[in-house]
Amino acid sequence: MIRLALLCWLLGSLLWTSPALAHAVLLQTTPAERAILPEPPDGVVLQFNEAVQPVVLRLMEAAGASIAGEATSAQGTTQSFRPARALRPGQYLLSYRVVSDDGHPVAGTIVFAVGAAPATWTEASEVAEGPWRWFAAANRALWMLSLALAGGSAMFLLLAPTQRAPLRSALSPTVATGSLLAIITAGLAIVFEGGVVLGDGTMTEMWHAGFATTQARQSLAAMALAAALWFAWWRDSTWVGAIIAVGLFATMTLTGHVITAATPWVTAPALLLHGIPALLWVGSFLPLLAIVQSPASAADSVIPRFSRLAVAGVGILALGGAAIAVLQVREFSALTSTAYGLGVLAKTALAAPLLLLAAYNRASLTPRVLAGDAPARTRLGTTIGLELMLGVAILARSEEHTSELQSRLHLVCRLLLEKK
């Protein structure tokens, strides 16, 4: 058991994750979809695989008229709707929208009939999601970028103790912008999460709904730590700022199924061990640009130190990406026939030139810069700028792509442990 748990932890530690795992799943409905009942039912029952909170349970006639009744919940996994009157012969639709413990909504409609079979079944209309899911994803990508900018700059100072004063001056706008952006996007995340939960509603309703999810806990912690990071930077407390930056990165574990999963020892370490280095890598590009534009003595001491650390970090991320791709895409055909496979190709297309640029910088430009080659220094600044753009694109793509991967990894480990 211990060896198996360690294996699952190691698989999880290879993954740079975002904190959204598998969501609640509707297991069974009574009556079943398109069931024909000889007698009117006492109510409609929905059975989920995990506890959920009901947002909408609405029973309607085929023409769209709502039927009064009472919604009840048993242990969170069972949601029921009991109509106030006996259902007359005809078609009925139950529209539901519930929220799982990780804050993600699950919605749908079931159709059934009482009495004779209908000539044609009423098609259940798609549940309107609204734009909030897209807003939430875009906002989270910006939030991750803000962590890279503020936290990456704060921790980069540890690599340049002799150049701390000029580097602090050059990076102060970056840390200020990143900290402010982290506070704003964290606050917006509460509202957007409320919009995702409700599907639609007023700003006040979405704000209240968002505060009822774990997103509020993450957002409040991130806002406080982002403000503390800027204060530590302003007070020139390098080590305090670095510690706060690690705490800010760790707020990624405060929401999503990473905290409700049965295997948090897989998901949380995976997020902390590889989410943090990935953000630090992206967050190091602007400090590197500042170093490249500084006097040669600063570059001579900082660039070699960063280069050694970057090789180790990139090696871990590359190995993890390859291992996860083999684990998830078992056949070459799946690369083009599944959404996950297409996501792997998209991330690879973005990561490949980033790795090539990093290798070119280390093998060709860095030695020439250290030798005093001025054109090489200018070219190094250009390639670092390109790396920054590619890193931001990968951050945005990873936010969309990793949710399915995490759910699969969590499921694999859970099934293996159950077999034991």
Mean pLDDT: 78
Q: Whole-number radius of gyration? A: 26 Å
Multimerization state: single chain
Number of strands: 9
Beta-strand content:
5-15%
| Coarse structural class | alpha+beta
Tally the helices: 12
- Percentage of residues in helical conformation: 55-70%
Shape from CA axes?
elongated
Order of helices and strands: HEEEEEEEEEHHHHHHHHHHH
Distance between the termini: 7 Å
* pLDDT < 50 stretches: 1-22, 401-420
Largest sheet: 5 strands, mixed
Strand order of the largest sheet: 2-9-8-4-5
3D architecture notes:
The protein is an alpha+beta fold. The protein is built from 12 helices and 9 strands. The strands form 2 sheets. The protein has a 5-stranded mixed sheet. A hairpin with a 4-residue loop joins strand 8 (90-100) and strand 9. Helix 1 packs parallel to helix 7, helix 3 (164-198) runs antiparallel to helix 5 (214-234) and helix 8 packs antiparallel against helix 12 (374-419). The chain is elongated.
Summarize the structure.
This protein has 420 residues and is of the alpha+beta class. The chain contains twelve helices and nine strands. It has a five-stranded mixed β-sheet with strand order 2-9-8-4-5. Strands 1-3-7-6 form a four-stranded antiparallel β-sheet, with no helix packed on it.
Helix-strand blueprint:
Layout: H1 2-13, E1 26-30, E2 35-37, E3 44-48, E4 52-61, E5 66-67, E6 69-74, E7 78-83, E8 90-100, E9 105-114, H2 132-156, H3 164-198, H4 203-211, H5 214-234, H6 238-250, H7 264-283, H8 285-292, H9 296-328, H10 334-337, H11 339-370, H12 374-419
Parallel strand pairs: 2-9
Antiparallel strand pairs: 1-3, 3-7, 4-5, 4-8, 6-7, 8-9
Helix pairs in contact: 1-7, 1-12, 2-3, 2-5, 2-6, 2-7, 2-12, 3-4, 3-5, 3-8, 5-6, 7-9, 7-12, 8-12, 9-11, 11-12
